[in-house]
């Protein structure tokens, strides 16, 4: 059996695309993992509105002090050693391997690096950002190695980069902030592509959050696509070659996934896993991401900071939760978990009146609250005992209970992406697990005043 607490913090082993159904193995303190098959294997990235994205990135950037050495700062964030020089991509094994000292890629003379660097500087000039606008030349006199991937990523996400520059325009040095995000984003992607163990909680936290925003299949495809980008970037001999490679990857990623990556990379700068975990539920699209986290990997979005390790292969996502997060995992998996995951003392009734008769009042100034609502549709779809039980009904302060109910009755485009449906109507189309995840997130965000 896979060791639960001794495996590396983040080990991503990806192979070429296959048609096999992906599954999630969720390790808790139980002897056996919870095997979870994501529903909706074609889950799409969470839709992020341009205005909401810009506002969120602007807010996140206010707490960041951009470094003059963003590549080095990104390495420190993920606690990895310096990497210099190019990589070799092996198509047969699908591995990205750093070249050793003195090794060079065939067909790429140093003159091409010099010309590529000149073209990069001319591009910076044309985009009204003269000089080394992306901080690619801080550690190398030419655009090579990781710098090629960072430049290709910038070219891949031109529209999203423009939106971020709009968000950073009020800062003293917008370009420094842009470079910080770009290097954080690129370094994280390299860590997923190069097969070596890591030791930083932010990486696992980011992986769990990104999967929640884009889904398991999309996330995996983006890593495979990035490996191809690495191969093409190393073969590129001109700026146009690099631009073409970037644009191909941009089409693979799409705007919503790119916004999610950029937003989470901005949130990660200068943070620990715990602080990053506290920010994620407040971000745009968190409601939909919470639903997708439950449906795709069987964990609560609010609990991603407690993810200890993540391993992603072509067929399986393996997540090991820290011991303190076991209860949250068990509660978050709903009907997808085994009976062992039920909390001690679990009881269910055929009606709410039966529940109240057995347990009595909720307490002074409190009211009983159904996390998954007891609507007629839910009763019909899930059965009364799935709703009237000690796992789904909790005591809430009366004021908080009133405010949560008011949220469900309101129209919130930022949550549902609808101008006509109430939150309750939108939620009624979701699975039990998704409704539960959203219900827990709603309590937390209403309590903190976010919703």
TrEMBL record:
Looking at the record's lineage, which domain of life comes first? Bacteria
Q: What is this protein called?
A: Lipoprotein
């Amino acid at each position: 059996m896979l060791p639960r607490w001794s495996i590396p913090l983040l080990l991503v082993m990806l192979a070429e695309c296959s048609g096999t159904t992906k599954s999630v193995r969720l390790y808790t303190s139980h002897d056996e993992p919870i095997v979870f098959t994501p529903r909706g294997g074609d889950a799409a990235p969470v839709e992020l509105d341009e205005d909401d994205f810009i506002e969120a990135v602007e807010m996140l950037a206010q707490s960041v002090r951009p470094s003059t050495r963003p590549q080095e700062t990104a390495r420190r964030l993920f606690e990895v050693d310096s990497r210099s020089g190019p990589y070799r991509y092996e198509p047969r094994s699908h591995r990205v391997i750093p070249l050793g000292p003195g090794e060079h890629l065939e067909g790429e003379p140093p003159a091409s690096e010099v010309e590529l660097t000149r073209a990069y500087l001319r591009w910076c000039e044309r985009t009204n950002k003269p000089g080394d606008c992306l901080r690619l030349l801080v550690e190398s006199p030419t655009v090579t190695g990781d710098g090629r991937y960072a430049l290709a990523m910038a070219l891949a996400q031109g529209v999203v980069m423009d939106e971020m520059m709009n968000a950073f325009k009020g800062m003293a040095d917008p370009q420094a902030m842009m470079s910080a995000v770009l290097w954080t984003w690129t370094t994280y992607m390299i860590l997923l592509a190069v097969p070596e163990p890591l030791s930083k909680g932010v990486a696992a936290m980011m992986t769990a959050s990104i999967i929640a925003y884009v889904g398991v299949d999309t996330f995996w495809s983006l890593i495979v696509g990035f490996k191809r980008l690495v191969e093409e970037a190393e073969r590129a001999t001109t700026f146009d070659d690099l631009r073409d490679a970037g644009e191909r990857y941009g089409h693979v990623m799409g705007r919503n996934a790119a916004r999610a990556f950029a937003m989470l990379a901005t949130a990660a700068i200068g943070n620990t896993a715990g602080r990053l975990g506290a920010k994620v539920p407040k971000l745009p699209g968190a409601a939909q991401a919470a639903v997708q986290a439950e449906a795709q990997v069987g964990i609560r979005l609010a609990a991603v900071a407690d993810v200890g390790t993540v391993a992603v292969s072509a067929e399986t996502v393996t997540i090991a939760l820290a011991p303190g997060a076991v209860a949250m995992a068990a509660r978050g998996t709903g009907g997808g978990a085994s009976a062992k995951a039920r909390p001690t003392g679990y009881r269910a009734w055929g009606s709410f009146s039966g529940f109240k008769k057995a347990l009595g009042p909720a307490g002074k100034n409190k009211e009983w609250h159904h996390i998954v609502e007891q609507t007629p549709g839910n009763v019909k779809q899930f059965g009364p005992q799935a709703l009237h039980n000690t796992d789904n009904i909790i005591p809430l302060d009366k004021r908080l209970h009133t405010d949560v109910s008011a949220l469900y009755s309101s129209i919130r485009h930022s949550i549902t992406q609808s101008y006509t449906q109430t939150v309750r109507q939108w939620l009624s189309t979701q699975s039990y697990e998704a409704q539960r995840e959203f219900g827990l997130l709603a309590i937390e965000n209403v309590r903190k005043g976010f919703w």
